[in-house]
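Predict the 3D structure for this chain.
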Amino acid sequence: MNTPLKVVQCWDDGVATDARLTDILRKHGAKATFNLNAGLHRNTRQFGWVYQGMDVYRLGWDEMNAVYDGFDIANHSLHHPYLEQIPIVDARREIAEGKDRLEQFFKKRVLGFAYPFGTYNNDVMAMVRDTGHVYARTTQAANQVFPPKDPMAFHPSCRFWTTDFEKRYHAAKKNGVFYFWGHSYEMTTDAMWRTFETLIKKISNDPQSEWANVKDLFAHTK
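Done. Predicted structure below.
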């Protein structure tokens, strides 16, 4: 019997639309990792920015446990800077303190990292590794995503909205891992949400696939 395709997904920035997203994922038994910036959240929900004419709000700490209950949490740095453009001491604080704050709040180990803006260099990669992360996600799409040459430069398969999502998904069955990512605020219409839920349902009902957490791909390194 063939080994099932492991499907992993992650979502960035800790925004209010993650609440709608996690409802869909729970409905279909899908696992996911949420990459958060611990230094950017306040006790209650706060306005963040405007995306395609729509206001984007960051979740408040007062709702985080409920929204992310049952899902994995990863580090996205403390304040989402371009890590390779700031002094090394500041970059290390962004990485280490971001991880520490998330672990203290969620009361569990944080093993994953997502580079802010998808940018990094060798020094940043070393700091992410040295602070106890087992992998770090980039934003560079790759056809062969696992195992990565370096876990600190783990390239995903695609964004969730890519037009050839299903083609990439089926092609990944030869490799064994399909990894997609995004921001839930990018779904700006009900039609986009319905399309996304259809994709999640298809994956959940595919006997050749199974959902996994990103960190579980690296279980042997913990």
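The CA atoms of residues 31 and 70 lie 8 Å apart.
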